[in-house]
Description:
By secondary structure, the chain is α+β, with helices and mostly antiparallel strands. The chain has helices at residues 33-52, 57-60, 65-69, 72-83, 89-107, 117-125, 133-153, 179-187, 193-203, 209-212, 255-268, 307-322, 331-342, 347-354, 359-365, 367-373, 377-385; strands at residues 5-8, 11-18, 21-27, 220-222, 227-230, 232-235, 238-241, 249-252, 274-279, 286-291. It folds into three domains: 5-63, no CATH class; 70-153, Tyrosine recombinase, N-terminal domain (DNA polymerase, domain 1); 179-373, Intergrase catalytic core (hpI Integrase, Chain A, Orthogonal Bundle).
Amino acid sequence: MPNGVETHGKGLRVYFRLDGDLVREPLKMAPTPDNIAHAENMVAMIQHEIQQGTFDYARWFPNSKRLQENTLGHWLDTWLDIKARQVADSTLRGYRGVIERYIRPRWGADQADRIDTVGLEQWISTDLNRLHSKTIKETVAVMRGVYKLYRSRNQAAHDPTEGVVVRLPDKDPPDPFTREEIDQILATPTKRTQELNLVQFMIWSGPRVSEAIALAWEDVLDIKQGLIRFRRSKVRGKYRITKTRRSDRVVELLKPAHQALLAQRAITEDMDPELMEITQRDNRTIKREHLRPVFRSTNTGRSHYDDFRLRARFFEAHLKKAGVRYRGPGQCRHTFASQMLTAEMPVAWIIAQTGHTSERVFRDSYADWIREDASNMRDQAAAKLGF
Length: 387
């Protein structure tokens, strides 16, 4: 049998080296002398084209399994399958949305090794230009992750995302509610008693909305002292334990938050528990617990599904009724932090209460408030030193 040709079952197969890899492709031909000679000529022509840099794999083997497994669409699916075991459902949903809306329609059928940086840059400046910079950056980040995986199998391949930079505008600073606005919000009458208790609780304890709606009476450590523990969150109807161990924290409730908790005690403490399926940090293990949510929907008696529904079905309308400029319920957390900074509480204590991932992140978010809070530190130091 000539070099580059071999029998494969009842047929023939050609083989050759491409980018250092030994490649084999079956031919739908019986191993007759004429077919063997034809296959030998085919290999010679392929090797010549490879040397000349003109070899087109799809032209020679349009139905090749290698081509199918080399499409970006194949690697997008492989990357998603791997991420499904690594990240939370909400994160995976975000990845899948970016892929199906933007990446797959443009690049899914292309060979991964034929996509270049210029093509990506043109795509970003035309097709993606209408999107927010954050969405563009997330889309490129997904492409970068897919190519990192692709190159683990094809080490000689070029990563077209190298050198692609997407800059973001300055992050919007926190937009907390003022004391006057807080009073307006909490004084505005509503039939949604539990939702208003929830807002008061969030403003004066600083949790993420997803943490507040996942709070259960089993997390109340001392009702008289106002000690609670945040140890899970609820996003789009699904429970999971806190993303980081730092977010799993015991919180000392200030008086208004404690009052909101006590008000809820009379409403929900004796209600039947709900079965909560709680995803653990490995994003695979599910623990099932029967727990009693502290805050429920006044209308349905069930726990809140997510922060989006709370915003759409209560918060936005209530702020309008209260005559307060609209900001999302997530600003309740910023309000707590800003109020504590204004009260000159130690930054370390505020970080512990809010469960921020690091002091750096907290200081970046509240830099202006910290500077404003510290504006009279020189005068205080002078007074203490007798200057």
